[in-house]
Design brief:
globular, 12 helices, 5-stranded antiparallel beta sheet
Length: 479
């Protein structure tokens, strides 16, 4: 994505400074707070390159320059603050801030099954390494039971060497932050024991690779793709959730092209009713806050006009909502779910917005596959036997292929949208073209097979297979 950026001016808005690289994200934008009043935006696909930033009036601009790798950036900021016209290209986060941004990206945009307790440990560690002891303390304290469980699994030979290496970093950070508590002594012991392990079982690593393939690979061909034939039976319609308007990993994900919503028209009702159902992801507590704050909607497929909304409740491991909708309206309706925090104006319903939902689903799927390839490649080293290395490289090739297929499908969808736009849609055409350029740049990066940027190596949660149900740790919790 960064290769398409050109020099852009640092703008002054009142007392604020901001810069915009004027590029679209290939996968999705991630906002990363650097300090009070200072935010940067990166693409989930490349958490080292800053595509937009803002320094609020009165904020310490040095915090931004200190987070970046470019040594002359503070001079440019000072010049812009003094009223000079300054142009600059994209800056890059240093490895520690790249790691922090990656953690935020995984938390917000990964559709992979993730142990939320382990992700909390990754989050706490990234904050600790940046000196944020206050925020890391609470997260480490809450996720300490998960860390104890992982320590036991590591000592029992159940983790790969790469996961053990990352676990050692996490446990050392936890021991430092919690040093004045009883947990701190436990963490010190875990860190020492994990660091002392020097031999690992290749069979354990091969089993992990097999589990990774099983958990992360869905395939990309489906008989009911978004935008295709939508009516399976006269009274049942499938739908696709929008990753922008609900917490990811709360609904079961079976692939970008597989419907995750089902709308059923109830026969015999006087005014017309539709039940919209969505399956919760394994390990998600149906009583968790996010699950209790979901709503269903029906909208006219052509105009995007909302026809009905209703709160969702849980039934078994499904979320269900009862919508008031006539049989005639049902035939031309599309359906979706959204979190209570969503502004209704942000719902992307009706043509052509539903196609953008499709693009985003395939791009988060593509990124998920690419991250799985990174994890599989990172998990083996020269000490692994040849059979294990072959298994890992086979998995890497498969994930890369799936990543590229998903991204190419997204590009094809966007190009079709551009070709169908009329003369009065020049602004939208420009925006779509920028997204196409960004995804093509992402595809080139995936095809190159280059190593990830410093700080972009797999998180601990990416080197473990998520538990399928809640346990004594916080793996099934939402945070």
């Amino acid at each position: 994505m960064s290769e398409s950026m050109t020099l852009q001016p640092i703008q002054v808005d009142g007392g604020d400074l901001y810069w915009d690289g004027d590029v679209a994200p290939s996968v999705a934008e991630v906002v990363v707070p650097i300090a009070a009043g200072i935010d940067v935006v990166v693409d989930a696909a490349d958490t080292s390159t800053v595509v937009r930033w803002r320094v609020a009036e009165g904020s310490d601009a040095q915090a931004l320059s200190g987070a970046c790798a470019e040594t002359d950036f503070h001079e440019r900021l000072a010049g812009a603050s003094n009223g000079r016209e300054i142009y600059c290209a994209a800056v890059h986060l240093n490895p520690l801030w790249t790691r922090r941004a990656l953690t935020a990206a995984i938390a917000r945009w990964s559709v992979a099954p993730i142990d939320e307790g382990v992700l909390m440990l990754d989050d706490a560690t990234s904050r600790h390494l940046l000196g944020d002891r206050v925020e890391s303390y609470g997260r480490f304290a809450l996720a300490s039971p998960t860390l104890e469980i992982l320590g036991d699994e590591c000592l029992g030979g159940e983790l790969s060497s790469s996961a053990a290496d990352e676990l050692a970093i996490v446990s050392l950070a936890a021991a430092d932050v919690l040093s004045e508590t009883a947990w701190g002594h436990v963490m010190i012991g875990i860190a020492a024991q994990v660091q002392a392990i020097t031999t690992f079982d290749d069979e354990t690593l091969r089993r992990w690779i097999e589990e990774l393939v099983d958990a992360a690979s869905h395939g990309l061909v489906d008989t009911d793709m978004a935008g295709g034939v939508r009516t399976l039976r006269p009274t049942v319609s499938s739908g696709y959730s929008d990753p922008h308007v609900l917490p990811l990993r709360i609904l079961a994900w079976r692939g970008a092209g597989t419907p995750d919503l089902e709308a059923t028209l109830l026969a015999g009702t006087e005014s017309g009713s539709v039940i919209l159902s969505a399956q919760l992801a394994p390990g998600v507590d149906s009583n968790c806050r996010e699950a209790c704050e979901m709503s269903a909607y029906a909208a006219d497929r052509r105009s995007g006009t909302l026809l009905s909304t209703a709160p969702m409740t849980w039934n078994g491991h499904n979320l269900v909502g009862m919508l008031d909708l006539s049989e005639d309206a049902f035939a031309d309706a599309c359906f979706g779910v959204f979190h209570a925090s969503t502004d209704l104006h942000d719902l992307r319903v009706g043509d052509p917005l539903t196609a953008l939902v499709e693009v985003d689903r395939f791009m988060v799927e593509s990124w998920r596959s690419r991250r799985a390839a990174v994890a599989a490649r990172y998990a083996v080293d020269s000490s692994s036997d040849s059979a294990t290395r072959r298994a890992a490289m086979s998995a890497v090739r498969g994930f890369i292929r799936e990543s590229l297929e998903a991204a190419e499908f997204a590009v094809e969808t966007l190009m079709n949208m551009v070709s169908e736009l009329g003369d009065g849609s020049a602004v939208l055409s420009v925006l779509l073209t920028k997204r196409i350029e960004a995804i093509k740049s992402y595809v080139r990066a995936v095809e190159s097979g280059n190593d990830v940027q410093a700080g972009g190596h797999p998180l601990l949660c990416e080197l473990l297979i998520a538990r399928r149900e809640s346990d004594d740790a916080v793996g099934g919790a939402r945070w």
